[in-house]
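In practice, a research group might receive sequence data for several interacting partners and want a quick structural hypothesis before committing to experiments. The following worked case mirrors that situation: the sequences arrive first, and a predicted assembly follows.
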Amino acid sequence: MKAHTEYLVFSTRKRQELINITERVSEIVRRAAIAEGMCLVSAMHITAGIWVNDEEEGLKADLAEWLETLAPARPDYRHHRTGEDNADAHLKRTLVHHQVVLPVTSGALDLGPWEQVFYAEFDGQRKKRVVVKVLGE
Amino acid sequence: MKAHTEYLVFSTRKRQELINITERVSEIVRRAAIAEGMCLVSAMHITAGIWVNDEEEGLKADLAEWLETLAPARPDYRHHRTGEDNADAHLKRTLVHHQVVLPVTSGALDLGPWEQVFYAEFDGQRKKRVVVKVLGE
Amino acid sequence: MKAHTEYLVFSTRKRQELINITERVSEIVRRAAIAEGMCLVSAMHITAGIWVNDEEEGLKADLAEWLETLAPARPDYRHHRTGEDNADAHLKRTLVHHQVVLPVTSGALDLGPWEQVFYAEFDGQRKKRVVVKVLGE
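A structural hypothesis for the assembly, expressed as tokens:
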């Protein structure tokens, strides 16, 4: 069994961003040099997530608007009594989920025709990490 | 380490369906012939998900109704400017999540007493795939 | 490849509780005695989940209140015709998701600075299990 681990670092310009990381994850899988296995992609900061869906501008805007409806930014979260202002980002991360396990088959990511992997930032403008761990043989 | 991969194909009659795939996944795990490991079950199309919950008709109807409340089918999603009409299906997949990792213990799926695995189709009536990858020894 | 499996048992005093299990999972990873791998933590009962987020009282109260808004306890779910009264707990589990895969690097859980692992009980006051399976080498 082989294990290969890398960390991606993001520092977004906007507070919220969706960043397509499919190619970067694919390259890590290539460097892992395994034929069969699994690749965990997990946001290490608790106001960011990983979303697997479509690279289509309209849908990405729909997602952002929809998350704002279900988990709106509001001043009156209890979490804000600590001085924070990002409780909605914690809830948005919960909705999209913060990780994905991607299958690796014949040495490459085994994705469906439209599956793209996104880093979903909900409270950016500072350095945040994603762990990518590939396990296999 | 052994790896075993199979693909399930679905072409539902209705646009939305919940299909219990527990037995089919169990059979794949048996064919993998491992004692200990993990089994990834992941919807490869971005308008379908995997749901682990109860095989109970009432609850399954509750889920469908609830998803419709939180992510309603509506004409005015931006995604629909591309000609698509399924933005709600992308959001519903996001809510139920599109994958699960099932533990394999002593050669079989290690599920709780009520855990059943469902393929959750939100935009069916065409061929769609689920990857099942078993890793272990 | 090594596999190590343990089960955590919970019997909460209140119907809903968030229990920080990070230390218990860390100890299981230590007992697994692997350097590199993955650790699956999965709630085996379908009215409980696993949440990875912040150990902060305000945020935990925000989460509970927010889940109640999105998936309220109500008498009129169809699932309740079976005699059950916990349909909302099934839906809340769906929102927070019921499992997480944690990376193991250099023999320990590879978590971000604020990542804590919680058992999220939505219908407690009885014995319920979580499977923890560590795979690696």
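Before designing any experiment, note the following. The interface with chain B takes residues 1, 35-38, 51-54, 56-59, 61-63, 66, 70, 95-97, 100-103, 105, 110-115, 135-137 of chain A (CB under 8 Å). DSSP finds three helices and eight strands in chain A.
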